[in-house]
Amino acid sequence: MITSTIARKRFWTAAAAGAALLLTAGCTVDESGEGTATEGEVPEVQEQELNQELHDQLPDDIKDAGSITSVNTGSFPPYTIVDGENNVTGASADLAEAMGQMLGIEIEHETVDGLASVLTGMDAGRYDLSIGPTGDFPERQEQATFIDWVQEYVVFAVQAGNPQDIDGLDTTCGKRIAVQAGGSAEAVIKEQSSTCEDDGDDAIEVQSYKDQPSAILSVQSGRADAFFSSRAPLTYFVNDSDGKLELVGTEDDNGFDDLYQGIMVPKDSEMTDIVLAVLEELHDNGTYDAIMGKWDLDANKLDTPGINLAK
After folding, report:
1. Are β-strands 106-111 and 67-72 bridged in parallel, bridged antiparallel, or unpaired?
2. What pTM value is reported for the model?
3. Where does residue 85 rank: exposed (0-12), middle (13-18), buried (19+ CB within 10 A)?
């Protein structure tokens, strides 16, 4: 299993290459891996024993194939770090490895563009699940089932010193805000832009990017004033920015109440109860805590996983 420091270096190399057109002369990214999420001793993630009872509950086609496919939408560190073609590390990859060991199957990863492609692919049977984690919202529960394993918060990453004085959703009118395309933050910031105009203020310039690295680089290069996204990945980026970025709006709900994120499976999937049982066992045996601690995600842990927790 690749250590988190190596993963960060590989991630930033891939991110910088993929977003080269966004960079300006003044934009830099710290590739040192120093001062980031996993300083000190990294919690050991234990190898799992086969749970024969859960293995036997798997659908016959999965048992016959010996594998399932988990689909993702690109790098979403520290949960998902895509390095090259479908080579995935991060907290979600560690969770997938533990799940696969417990179920006695391989969990393979595939990357696609956007949540719509994930949902379409699952509906068509091309993908068995998406470990994500993906934001759980009641309207999304009409399209898929969520087995939630993360509590998240949505904040802003800005240039150090916060030159545009952004301190929450209500201070974004007239600003240039980067978001990941198709995500819940994009919908919230677009709604806020309409509110700005209704109140006689300038609309928000919403910049939608296909992945997190492109969005964060837009802030570092000055093309955007802030990146509006989940706190865990933004903390990761800020820690790796060598003091060039900071978090703001951390004391505001920013348009979200309780925000749960989880594994997505197709509605009425036979995998729902199996995945929940695996997550419950990983909680009980300490593996979940070890994975979350390894990736500096202790603040995002759930006491227990659950199905469709968003209400």
Report:
1. parallel
2. 0.75
3. exposed
Output phi, psi for 164, to 5 deg: -95, 5
CA 188 to CA 250: how far, in whole Å?
Answer: 16
Give the Cα separation of 228 and 113 in Å (integer). Answer: 19
Q: What is the pLDDT of residues 156-177, one digit of tens each?
A: 999 999 999 999 999 999 999 9
Cβ–Cβ under 8 Å, residues 236 and 106: no
**Alpha carbon distance 245, 227 (integer Å):** 10
Residue 94 identity (one-letter amino acid) = D
Residue-wise pLDDT tens digits, 90-130: 999 999 999 999 999 999 999 998 889 999 999 999 999 99
- And the tokens for 91? 């907290």
For residues 271-286, b (16+ Cβ closer than 10 Å) or e, as one string? bbebbbbbbebbbeee
Q: How far apart are CA 70 and CA 81, in angstroms?
A: 14
What sign does the dihedral 147-150-154-159 (CA atoms) show?
negative
CB atoms within 10 A of CB 288: 23
